[in-house]
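Notes from the pairing session

We agreed to fold both candidates in a single pass and log them together. This is the raw record for the first candidate, unedited. Please don't reformat it; downstream parsing expects exactly this layout.

Candidate A
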Amino acid sequence: MDEAILLNSVTIKGKRVGIKIRGDTTEYDPAAYNLRPNATVEDLLKQVQGMQVDRNGNITAQGKQVRRVLVDGEEFFGNDPTLVTKSLRADMVEKVQVFDKKSDQSAFTGINDGRDAKTVNVKLKRENKSGNFGRVELAVGNLGFYQGQGFYNRFHNDNKIAAYVFSNNTGNVGLSKRDRQQYSDGGVEATYNALDVDIWNGSYGGRGIPKSTGLGGQFSNKFNEGKVVMNMNYSYNNLNVLGSDFVERQENLPSAYLLSNSVRKFDNNDQKHNFNGDLKILLDTSSTLVVKINAGQIRRNTFNNFRAEIKDSIGNIINSNSRLFETFANKYAGTADLLYLKKLNKERRTISIGLNLFHTTSASSGTLISNTNTGVTSELNQLKYNDDHSSIINLKSTYTEPLTKSSTLSANLIWIFNSSRLNRETFDQARNSQISVLNEALSNDYRLEQVFQRGGLNYYFSTKKVRFQAGSDFAYVNFDQNDRSKNSFLRKEFYNLYPSAEFAYNFSAMETFSMKYNGYPTLPSIEQLQPVINNTDPLNLILGSIDLRQSFSNSISLNYIAFKTAKDIFMSGNFSFSQIKNPISVIVNTDSEGLSIYKYANLNNVSNLRYSGSFSYAAPLKLSNISFTIDGSMDGNRLNNIVNSKLSNNLLNMYKLTFGLGKAKKGLYNCGVSFGVIYNTNKNSLQPLLQNESWGYQTRPNLDFYLPFKMTIHTEVDYLFQGKTTSFTNDFSRVLWNSYIQKDFFKNSDLSIKLTLNDALNQNRGFERYITQNLVIQNTYDTIKRYFMFSCVWNFKKFNSVK
């Protein structure tokens, strides 16, 4: 007779799988990662495979910058990534999803329109969808440093109310990275502030010492049993940046090169108001109406004091310049989107109609006082006024028809009207006089109108394993240029193709490959066309050209992602390549006195190239559960322009390889270290002997050590070395060492006090080196250095019980 043994219980232990791949969506499980109490979503993203978060909170996923962070699939604070990741707690999250979010029209029809954006969706746990939670931090340091911020969130299932306020001078300057693309119709991007007298975009990238204050509120809810979805938010941000920088520049010419340096002191202020509102209405079981509004105002003051000189290749000074440039700008912008979606009487037979309205208007003024010495002294005392506006009407309709169970054909018609005006006026002022006279050579009133008539067909095929799409649009464009100052009119006509293709193959549920191709033209902007000199830098004059034509880009991208569950191995890779034919570039003419004139022009029979790639590999080592990662990336450009009647070809490449090790023991420590190698190359056809190759190294060890009595010690080091080049013969190195000790109180560690030491060795120095066309530039600047700070943080939460 068989014997039976009755067991009271059986416990099976195993490691929780942290990653799942579902088609084009990658999911991460927060419970699989070792996180400290009250860790934020940002802390979680720093640990997950295939994602990186930089010091400013910018997120990169699978080689692409994350543009949106959603909460339960809905917008939260108007697509503001850093606000979501810094304010939401990781222990509230059920899973984090990463995918390419398509436009509303594309998601409805299933046809890719090329307007996708890398997106993170934070899906909350069921028990954390109803209640109140938030965070309050007050901090004070030596040398006048301070930081205060508060977040409050009230969630009741679909009803979400949130608010925040912050003020600091520690570099947490704002909650949005949209900058120049603050407003966009989604199809025709509109630059935000490119036409003002001073084109500073109101952002802070580490240059200078900032002071920032902001507040905002968000409301979203679903009504009428989910048939009406509303999402609204408002934000205010005031940023002031004070500091100085030192710019060294090498300008490559056919027969020689010039060396210049300039010292600048600046005091800039930017004040923004912004409102976003989304409304989705399910009219019936087959039709939906979507309304989106985005409106805002910017007021901006800039003050810049320059001193510069230019030397020839043997060190002789050939000119010097000092100038004072002070500006003010006031800008309003708004966009409205209406989208009607209708499912017809057959599955996948749909019609959608979208209308986008965009308008922006700006008035900016400035004072330029300049003194230039080229052996002969010339002075400028000028008042400058820019008045610009832009309006866009975009109407698009799409019809989809199922051909078979797996294939669909779509047809679309698009009509776009784009009108812009740029009126520039410069007045000369005599010394010690209030009389000003219009300088006609530096003044111009220009209008540009474009009418697009576009249509096309697209074929789509999809099965469980394979997804394929191919098609093209054809467009006819009327391009009218009106120089009101000279009473001249010029009409151009363009015929354009917009080919596109996409292929994706799922090897398995955890392994997928995709490829995309897009071809598209780029039309010249009004600033590039307007035939007037911009002399805000008297030694580098910029001139538009009415004869510009469009360029055309062919872009292809490859993506691969896989997770081997049995071995806990994550792999991803991507590559992108773009060819820009007949690119809009510049013709540069530099005379013997160092004066350069830059004129926009199409370069015939040459192409600019852009290419980039990255890969990521993460796996556990067999020894002691140590995690191992290796990340690599490369970025390259081939840029062309004309310098003193000779073609200048610039080949720029950057390669980076980073190795990382990490080990964690719950309740005891979490540590890691990374080491990266960077190699830069630059080859310029005008000066082939100045190759400007350089090596760089970066290492980042970090440690969280959990002590008894709810105490934590955190320390991290960021060492950067960048080697000398032919143009810049000094190495650059710095060690940033940041640490804090923290004590938590109460059962759930809701209250914490923390002592922070920023830049312990006082070595933080602003540094940037880059190359563009025939210029090699190095910039060193003021930035935030060593300080101590004492802070108190209160994390609060109260969730309702879930039945």
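Candidate B (folded immediately after A)
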Amino acid sequence: MGSFSSLALLPLISFLLLQCYASAQHTLGTGSSLSVEDHARPFLVSPDATFSCGFLQAGDNAFYFSIWFTATKNKTAVWSANPGYPVNGRLSRVSFSRDGELALADANGTTVWDTKIGGNRQLTVSLNDTGNLVITDQSTGHALWQSFHWPTDTLLPSQAMSKDTKLVAGYYTFYYDNDNVLRLLYDGPEIASIYWPDPDLGIWGSGRTNYNSSRFGILNNAGAFRSSDGLRFQASDLGSPGVKRRLTIDKDGNLRLYSLVNATGVWTVTWVALQKPCSVHGLCGKNALCEYQPSLRCSCAPGYEMADRRDWRKGCKPTFSLPAYTAINCSQGVPEEYTFVKVAYTDFYGYDLAFNKSVTFESCMNICLQMCSCAAFSYRMDGVGNCFPKGVLFNGYTSSFFPGSIYLKVPSKVNASALPLVAAKGLACKPNGTSPAVVPGYADMYGRPGSGPKWAYFFSFAAVLGFLELLIFAAGWWFLSSHHSIPSSLQAGYRLVMATQFRRFSYQELKNATGNFKEELGRGGSGVVYRGVLDEGTVVAVKKLTDVQVQGEEEFWAEVAVFGRINHINLVRIWGFCSEGNHRMLVYEYVENESLDRHLFGTHIIGRSLSWAERFRVALGAARGLAYLHHECLEWVIHCDVKPENILLTRDLDAKIADFGLAKLSGRDAAASDGVQLSHMRGTTGYMAPEWALGQPVDAKVDVYSYGIVLLEIVIGTRISDQTTADGEERLEMGQIAQALKQVVASGDIGSLVDTRLNGQFHPRQAMEMVKISLSCMEERSSRPTMDDISKALTACDDEDEHPAYVS
């Protein structure tokens, strides 16, 4: 009852506050002032009372001179004159002096901040409906100073971002870099590094361009942001009338767009720059790991402890002593035996001493051992064998989506018996290591260690390589400009193609590669797939699309450019496309072992049936792939047709999801508030969520439902849609199947469900968890878990013994 009363009174309280504030002035002449003791009274209020300006309390006896949204629950500041330097709660004063200078003075009379303008002109200070505090020369009407030119951590609609403005929150900055690209920068006490746009993708891979010189960005009232570097984003409630918005860089380093809920005075996030909070650099400090499950938390790497119990940003210090690496003792070799501590699904971004591709784990370990300055090495088990020796351990993060592990280098004398170790006895840090010692305390903007004389040849080589790259790019640009077959509006997309492995194929190229579309690999509702071999000998899968309803080449290019940037170990990689006349085709990586249905069901089974370990690995891989599409990829992608036929298996029987994104290519109507409306139904009977049949807008939970069906089929080894009643005539409804599953879970008799071809060899706990997850996926849409939740639950089960138990 108390909660209801509070909500009922809130509109009345807001109304009374607005009436009180409406009596305050929105323009003042020279000679006006406000003392901090009168902080309950605003200095200025905008004409429509949306914004107020005055003293805003920041602590027990600390105040800022700020502008805030009047009707918000906690007086959300959008600008402050003195961020980080609050004034005393007694005797402090803001004054608009006789000579027209607006200044803030602390209790001792010291000027903390001022506008540095004045004179004998006729000046006024006013607060506009946009939230802009302006000093105007009344004789000319010109604005001499305005808060919009000096933002703190927030950008308001109609307030421009330019080369001279930046948003700052602690160590984090949102700004235009000198290459004309909007970035997020961590500039901490020890390191400085850019973390957005994604450094791994680069400018072009993130859909940006540095070919501009205006450096201009703006958020409009409808909730759409546009920037000269190609950055585009919009609020999820785009166009909702009368909504108040703000774009803020928060103290956790993430950039968020907020919308105000008028009824409650509370802000809601309607867009966020980084879906993975741990992608922000510097959150947890040196030698520490960031993890999100489901809230952000920091932890020290094994063998390390917090440097300051009150502040994670100060990172962690080793609990063991490390040799003092200097140029002298490194040249003589360090007579230490080392052990490596494995931390799974973990990496430290940046500070790579080298990059070695297609090497074995043992070779990677030896590379680190031979470098005196190597503190750890990252080894990515992505089918290639990528090795990254690390000089310093900054920007650590743990994610179930990361396809590798970090191996921390510690002296063998360290007591680490309780930790998973990879022994490397008998090997020492050799004097002729391939990397120089790290220069302490120095790092460039991308978090790489400082360079010394031994790197001169490397940089010379890089310069030559960069020049050749520039020539190639220039040739591509000339080709683009001189061939009228490519519309000018596609130039940005073409630049993306030039900067990545994603490319455009001609119809004749793909016709030749497939032998005139001779060898068919499979077919479905979206098209037919053919095997092809490109000129360089690469085997690919070419899909001729049959249900793509786009207006022309521009729309098709825009759609597939999104998929070209998606890269995950459990997703089939898209290498390129063809858009020529009426031909629309996609070129995929070739996955050798066909689809999951061929390994699970009846007469389709290829060779032997999948073992339990293989089934669980497929289930986990598919979950991680879908979680990436839903939560981590550059653009929100719903698969809409998750089924065994669209889960392909590699030579090592790892799962790769195919046909993701084809729902987008099929065309969407306008987005609804709680989902999207597809122009026509996409999916397969038996795997389609109930909301399809009801004609409701769909969201990522349709994939969750379909995955739940597939997960159950992996356990039982047969099609759910093939299940019939005892008389063999009427198919079972999903409600009946769910009820039967609940009874099995309640009884604990999981063996009665598991595929009999496994002969009782399976993990009972894993099987029970998979059935429970499947049941939760069949619930009402709002009750279903996310794919991220599912991935984490299966990952937790993956920690068990790798050998299946025998259940008689």
